[in-house]
Prior knowledge:
Elements: E1 2-13, E2 19-30, E3 33-39, H1 43-49, E4 52-53, E5 56-62, E6 66-72, E7 82-83, E8 98-100, E9 103-105, H2 112-123, H3 135-143, H4 150-153, H5 158-162, H6 169-182, H7 187-193, H8 201-211, H9 214-219, H10 222-226, H11 233-244, H12 246-257, H13 266-271, E10 278-282, H14 289-298, E11 302-304, E12 313-316, H15 322-330, E13 334-335, H16 337-346
Parallel strand pairs: 10-11, 10-12, 12-13
Antiparallel strand pairs: 1-2, 1-5, 2-3, 4-7, 5-6, 8-9
Helix pairs in contact: 2-3, 7-8
The structure holds zinc ion (ZN).
Keywords: DNA damage, DNA repair, DNA replication, Ligase, Magnesium, Metal-binding, NAD, Zinc
Protein name: NAD-dependent DNA ligase LigA
GO molecular function: DNA binding; DNA ligase (NAD+) activity; metal ion binding
Amino acid sequence: EKETRIESVDFQVGRTGRITPVANLTPVQLDGTTVSRVTLHNKAFIEELDARVGDVVRLHKSGGIIPEILRVVKEKRTGEEAPIVFPNRCPECKAELVEDGKIHRCPNPLCPAKAFQQLRHWASRRAMDVQGLGDKLIEQLLEKGLVKDAADLYRLGKEDLAGLERMGEKSAENLLAQLEASKGRGLERALYGLGIPQVGEALARTLARRFGTIEKLMEAGEEELEAVPDVGPITAAEIRRALADKRMRDLIRRLQAAGVSFEARQAQAAEQPLAGLTFVLTGELSRPRAEVKEELEALGAKVAGSVSRKTSYVVAGPGAGSKLAKARQLGVPVLDEAGLAALLAERGAAG
Ligand SMILES: [Zn+2]
């Protein structure tokens, strides 16, 4: 635990428009790293903590990793502290924020702060998996006005990319090929990639299987949506609101015009529920590894011998060593056997 001071507070706008207050601190050494920023989560958290700009706070690392404010050291107050004023308008686009439980959100789908996060999400591995479209590149594309949203990505040509920093001919070609390939990822990934509030990977998959096309999902009434497992009234309303939005409809229409598929890859999914996934097995498993490998391959998965960025999951038993370390280093999800069983059940592949 260490003490330091809150110097100022920024309000960041996330992909879904969620506003997160972040405190800028007088930099302090804590468990081996310098901490200069810490999240204040939401308005309720600030109120509960009774934090003010200028306050001395006690910090620790939650789980040994994430810096967290434990409390305000009120006995060190000088009277100079200023209250933290939570905005009622979006710091970027000035739209009036809407409250959603403890969360404040910018409701403007065209908010520029959201654009960066949305493009990043669209291109992410679990959405459209456009490798080579990193943060720096997204920033440049936005700054030069080449791209405003995901649909614009598919209008990029070699000549647009040629003028960008660190973009050789080869990497431009690769990026265009990646974009081309991403058009056929299917409804579940495209739906996840749109970043509709409440619609994570698992729900996107369920919705894709249930409705098959984006048109059918758009037509679905509240009752029909609520009949889907894991969809309650709030989520149903959120999905309907997002898909009824004129700008969202326009985005989907332009993505479709560019050739992006909003149809479920259902036939394939039904026969081969693990199609497109690559597994690496390591450590001691309860069954012979060859047997597990065979089972996964029969369900459409690939089983590889080494871990790379393309690995979807590492299944690790006791005694796992370097492959497990590599997975952690690359951020590849690691499952134990129970986790694998749960994944198979979720994909409808159990038994
Ligand atoms: Zn905004």
